Amino acid sequence: MSEVVISVRELTKRFGDFTAVDSISFDVHRGEIFGFLGANGAGKTTAMRMLCGLSFPTSGSGTVAGYDVMHQGEEIKRHIGYMSQRFSLYNDLTVWENINLFAGIYGLSKSETKERAAELLERLNFASERNTIVGSLPLGWKQKLSFAIATIHRPEVVFLDEPTGGVDPMTRRQFWELIYEAAEGGTTIFVTTHYMDEAEYCSRVSIMVDGQVRALDTPAKLKQQFAAQSMDEVFRTLARGAKRAE
Amino acid sequence: MYAIEVNNLTKSYGEVRALDGVSFAVRRGELFGLIGPDGAGKSTLFRLLTTLLRPDGGEAKVDGLDIVKDYLAIRSRVGYMPGRFSLYPDLSVEENLSFFAALFGVKAEESYDLIEPIYKQIEPFRTRRAGKLSGGMKQKLALSCALIHRPSVLFLDEPTTGVDAVSRSEFWDMLAGLKQRGITILVSTPYMDEASRCDRIALCNEGRILGIDTPADIVSNFNSRLYGISSERTFALLEAARAQRGVVECYPFGECHHLVVDEQFDVAQFTASLSDFNDLVIKQVEPTIEDMFIKLMKR
Predict the structure, then answer these.
(1) pLDDT band at A86 (very low <50, low <70, confident <90, very high)
(2) Which CATH number fits domain B222-298: 3.30.70.100, 3.40.50.970, 2.60.40.650, 3.30.70.260?
(3) Which of A158, A176, B125, B140 is the most exposed place for a label (fewest CB within 10 A)?
């Protein structure tokens, strides 16, 4: 089996007497596209915050990119990438300013930033847009740029939190091609989505219900296990059984 | 008579043309969907029809009333649920409901029969502050408030965005119930799979309407052969397939890639030239709304 990039065991988060995340365990391997699904209120966001070093678990253990989720939140933040549809780039800054800002936040030196920015602009065919205000770019370009910036520090794993919400069907597909490409290049992808067809694009999918991981396998095996035609059906079967009101 | 009539409506914000000559009509009692991504102009259209904005050009009528001349009369006849949560977070569930009832000069009890199927699901939390509700409960309260004055036309701007697949399906069940009561509903969504829940839909993109029809007829106009292809080597297959003769388009589509082809396409030849994909599966598939949307976008 290939190298493990995310590994959690019995990871739990309680808020008072409410158990938001209830003893979840799984491994994610290098180059995998790992789909992290769950109904609203199932505990996805809380789990993801712990994996991104933004919140510490109440109990359990785990590592992300080799760092301990219990004690090394700051190191984790520096070694992962993060992108969401709601927040990705600053619309009032130029392409270059956005790159420079995020490279700085991720701790790249000036020379590294310069070198990687040039490489990034070249790869995306964006050199002529270097001084363009991001807000004026077409959505598809913004997404490409946003993904490239989220990975500018070459993180081992990138977290994508509903990256394609509200995006047209063509742009959504172009974005998934970027994801495939990055995964084939060895970047691990951890992605949440409400689009069930996107769950089919993942190497493996986990489905959370009431704070627990209730299913975890390849889309093909999950459909087999639940005697379902589509991931949508698998998801509905599991989520309908939820006891927790969102 | 139509409940909503829109004729060549345009609206720009500075240099951005949000609505670029949109026309359509919604019948009384119809559940009509505006399907399209962000930037399609859906929210602008809602703000024009609910008289919160004035158009730059064109005209529209809601419930027979002109959106510019008769704006005040329209406001008491329509219910509007904006895309962003717009209730008062510091008021409780029941206070929000009474507040909106008071604004429209009605009593909440008088509309209880209409909102009951929706409101009873959040009634156990009626003393909770609206800001402390979960996403799904906020959505139900917002819908209850939009219905409190028994509007004849209901405008719902992306009510299911960011909501999980199960809750989305339940929300559409509620809309079907309201339609039964004779309310005309104009609803927008970026989720193509929700189109089938509407009587008719308009596919919208970048301020224009690409097509209007029943969901079934939109799909039946696809007019191209469509195949589903799959292999373990997902990404490589995509690129290889695009280079083959007769392939117009190849894009990821859930568990397989969709392959739109023209008359030059030959299955045997295609399979032969992709022989290094030894697990290649190819089968003819039925197009969906999303395939049609992609096709219309390219036009």
Answers:
(1) low
(2) 3.30.70.100
(3) B125
Q: What are phi and psi of B249, to 5 degrees?
A: -155, 145
**Is A5 near chain B, with CB under 8 Å?**
no
Residue B42 and residue B50: Cα distance in Å, rounded? 12
Among A residues 149-208, those touching chain B with beta carbons less than 8 Å apart: 162, 165-171, 173, 176-177, 180-181, 184, 194-198, 200-201
Burial class from Cβ neighbours inside 10 Å (0-12, 13-18, 19+) for residue B64 reads: middle
Q: Based on the number of CB atoms within 10 Å of its own CB, is A1 exposed (0-12), middle (13-18) or buried (19 or more)? A: exposed
Q: How many CB atoms lie within 10 A of CB A110?
A: 10
Say what percent of chain B tops pLDDT 70.
100
ipTM: 0.76
Residue B185 near residue B4, CB atoms below 8 Å:
no
Tell me how far CA of residue A4 lies from CA of A26, A194, A206, B55, in angstroms: 10, 26, 16, 56
Chain B CB contacts of A200 below 8 Å: 254-255
Q: Residues B54, B58, B64, CA angle at the centre, nearest 5°? A: 80
Secondary structure (3-state) at B176: helix
Helix (H) or strand (E) holding B232: none
The arrangement of strands across the sheet holding A18-29 comes to A18-29, A4-15, A59-64, A67-68
The two tokens of residue B212 are 């209007």
Helix (H, G, I), strand (E, B), or coil: what is residue A191? strand
Q: Nearest CA of chain A to the CA of B102: how many Å?
A: 30
Contact between A240 and B190 using a beta-carbon 8 Å cutoff = no
Residues of chain B contacting A, Cβ within 8 Å: 36-40, 134-137, 161-169, 190-193, 205, 234-235, 238, 251-255, 290, 293-294, 297-298
- For domain B2-219, the CATH class is alpha beta
Integer Cα distance of B153 and B32 in angstroms:
11
Reported pTM: 0.84
Taking CA B177 as the corner, what is the angle to CA B182 and CA B51, rounded to the nearest 5 degrees?
55
Element (DSSP H or E) covering residue A171: helix A169-184
Q: What angle do CA B250, B278, B263 make, to 5 degrees?
A: 40
Break chain B into its structural domains and give their ranges.
2-219, 222-298
pLDDT, residue B192, reads 86
Alpha-carbon distances of A49 from A73, A76, A246, rounded to whole Å? 10, 11, 18
How confident is the model over A212-223, as pLDDT tens digits?
999 999 999 999
A113-121 mean pLDDT: 93
Which CATH superfamily includes the segment(s) A1-79+156-246?
Answer: P-loop containing nucleotide triphosphate hydrolases (3.40.50.300)
Please give the Cα distance from B25 to B28 (Å, whole number): 10
Q: What are phi and psi for residue B298, nearest 5 degrees? A: -75, -20
C-alpha closest to that of A105 among A85, A124, A131, A77: A77
pLDDT at A1 over 80: no
